[in-house]
Amino acid sequence: MENIAWTALSIISLASLFVLSMSWLGEGPRPPPHVIPPRQYLAEVRQRQAEKSALLEKERSRTRILTSWMENGFHFQTLPVEIQMTVLAFCADTPATYRALVCVSRSVYVMTLRACLPLMPITLSSPRQLISFSHLVCRDETPIASSLDAGVLVHRLWLSPLRREDTSLAYRILRACSNVRALACDARTLSAAIARCTRFKHEMCRELTLLLSRPQWECAMDTPSGLQFLQQLTHLRLMGEPTVPRTLPLPALTQMSYPDQLLRPEGENIVRPWALGTPVAFPSLQQVVLTRRCGPAGHIPEEVDPRLLVVYVPRDQTEMEVWCAAAKGQSLWYHASLALPVARQPM
User: Fold this and answer.
1) Among residues 168, 234, 164, 176, which one has the least CA distance to residue 202?
2) Biggest alpha carbon distance in the chain?
3) 91 and 126 housed in the same domain
4) Interatomic CA distance for residues 282 and 269, integer angstroms
5) Domain, as residue range, for 95
6) Which pLDDT belongs to residue 96?
């Protein structure tokens, strides 16, 4: 039995040796092993160590900052000015936060105004509001205002003085806010501003909303500053008299809007809001938007014809709220564009 066992073991060993020999012969010569030069190896090791040290130092720095904030409080003003302005700009949509920030300190007050005023719709109606805001934008009123020039930071301004005697105060505010982009005011205030200025400086204003008063177009057309102002308008909404003379120079006007309850027959010298085929009246006019009141749920805008659209506004939403919504990108013109095909949406 022992001979048989040794014979079987010998056969298995010889077979394994034969297979291993054949595999060696079939592989051919093996390539020499890759050897990294010592200098390169040391450089790679040092690089990995440096990267690890940088990560550890970054983590330790982060821990020190968090610990310092927990012990001493967060010092907002140690951040770069650009980051501070970006953070403060988010407060423009939250009046309560804005009012709290302007009470922190003089430096935070100035930075908050610079960051938020260009984004906020400013609405002024009551005597108290007009007086308070005039102290801010009229630079001869307070030391802070004299160094800030807050008037040029206002981009959206609503002026509707409740008393006739407040017109002069509204005019002073309008004159100070010379960088306004969208203006809503009554015709009396606008006419006073145009009549008293030899040069109307509101060169950036493109959107005008006239509030519940009959526009005095003759006053605007009789002065160089008035003509300049009319010729630069691209968006016009009339809340009072819904008629515009055919001779009114509005070459850049592309969008016009009326509340539909104000429409009535006009004379031959008046442009009807739906008569858009006269290039002499408004050569650049693309569409007219009529606003109608509806329930709180609202309705989808309707296209009456290629250039006449109806936008529905909830009954409980005031005209001021409709105007303020434009600061958040929800203007009447935006809602009107939802009813148009993409190819015909106004620029």
Assistant:
1) 176
2) 132
3) no
4) 14
5) 77-116
6) 86
- Pick from 319, 343, 46, 336: nearest CA to 160: 319
β-sheet bridge partners, residue 288: 256, 308
pTM for the predicted model, two decimal places:
0.72
> Which candidate, 289, 303, 295, places its Cα nearest to that of 331?
289
Distance between CA 257 and CA 310 in Å, rounded?
10
Residue 147 sits in the same domain as residue 82: no
| Helix (H/G/I), strand (E/B), else coil: 294 | strand
Look at residue 322 and tell me if it is in a domain.
yes
Q: Bin 28: left if φ > 0, else alpha if -120 < ψ < 50, else beta.
A: left
Q: How far apart are CA 243 and CA 187, in angstroms?
A: 14
Report residue 186 as tokens.
């009554």
Q: What is the pLDDT of residue 18?
A: 62
pLDDT tens-digit profile of 106-133?
A: 888 888 899 999 999 999 999 999 999 9
Model pLDDT, residue 146: 55
pLDDT at 156: 95
Domain count, the chain: 3
Out of 64, 96, 116, pick the residue that ends a domain: 116
Q: Which helix (H) or strand (E) is 161 found in, with range?
A: none
**Residues 238, 215: Cα–Cα separation, whole Å:** 9
- In sequence order, what are the beta bridge partners of 226? none
**228 and 291 in a common domain:** no
Most confident of 74-83, 257-266, 281-290, 321-330: 321-330
pLDDT band (50, 70, 90) for residue 162? confident
- Which residues, other chains included, contact 43 with Cβ-Cβ below 8 Å and sequence gap of 6+? none
d(CA 215, CA 185): 11
Write phi, then psi, for 201 (nearest 5 degrees): -90, 0
Residues facing residue 208 across a β-bridge: 183, 236
